[in-house]
């Protein structure tokens, strides 16, 4: 192998060439050398979206994709992965118990839980990313994102609910039958296991139809405590708090008599969350005034 800069003969390996560049041509550098002498046209462009990709070294060159999202949505890669899994396991995705168990084991070794959604580290990382990009913890909380989703659906299908479109519904059912042998993912054992192991609280945190009194109470709290969250998931016990003030670990619940007939269930849920250090304020069929809220919050925070 010859160095294209000084024409020196080297061992037949890119490793020795890289070391030679670092020792003798620092001013040029490995990336610039690759770009000038080895790079193929458009090899630094993502195969998915066309964005610039990351340089990895002389032997690998540039990545094929700019992100995991582009990599996972690439048709060739999807088909290749399907073929490998079919040959190796006789099925694809989480319909294969061996793959499902392997995924859980890896997640448990890395994060101490079976599903990524249960990990505080993963949750915080996701929230941090969303805050930087959208200014909220989850995309569904961003007004602009919600409006864009609805506009796209209305323009394309004349509805704000994709599952009202027969074409989409049938396509989804076909994919699910092929992958898991059932029409919807919610019928799979994998989904049931996830819901029982903390994911239910994450799902219910996206409730789009909280009661009007609950929303009014939330807006009052939000005017004083900027970190207040509506439908706050408590993953450790797989529960939901109506309105949470995470900085104070205070849970505020609006109990409408129609939806809260079984007080025992509310008490069990409250105890589960209180065991994690949260304190509760409950208002039954009554939206508190701002002064009342402040008074009640000050009262329980001063106790401790």
Characterization of the model:
- The chain is α+β, with helices and mostly antiparallel strands and 304 residues long.
- It has three domains: 14-72, no CATH class; 95-204, no CATH class; 212-303, Endonuclease, Chain A (3-Layer(aba) Sandwich).
- Helix content is 51%, strand content 10%.
- It has twelve helices and six strands.
- A four-stranded mixed sheet has the order 3-4-5-6. Strands 1-2 form a two-stranded antiparallel ribbon.
- Helix 11 links the parallel strand 5 and strand 6.
Core attributes:
single chain; 304 residues; alpha+beta; Endonuclease, Chain A; four-stranded mixed beta sheet; two-stranded antiparallel sheet; 12 helices; 51% helix; elongated
Instruction: Give the fraction of residues assigned to helices.
Output: 40-55%
Number of domains: 3
Question: What's the N-to-C terminus distance?
Answer: 73 Å
Radius of gyration: 27 Å
Largest sheet: 4 strands, mixed
| Share of residues in strands | 5-15%
- Global morphology: elongated
Please count the beta strands (DSSP E, at least 2 residues each). Answer: 6
Arithmetic mean of pLDDT: 83
Q: In DSSP terms, counting alpha (H) and pi (I) runs of 4 or more, how many helices?
A: 12
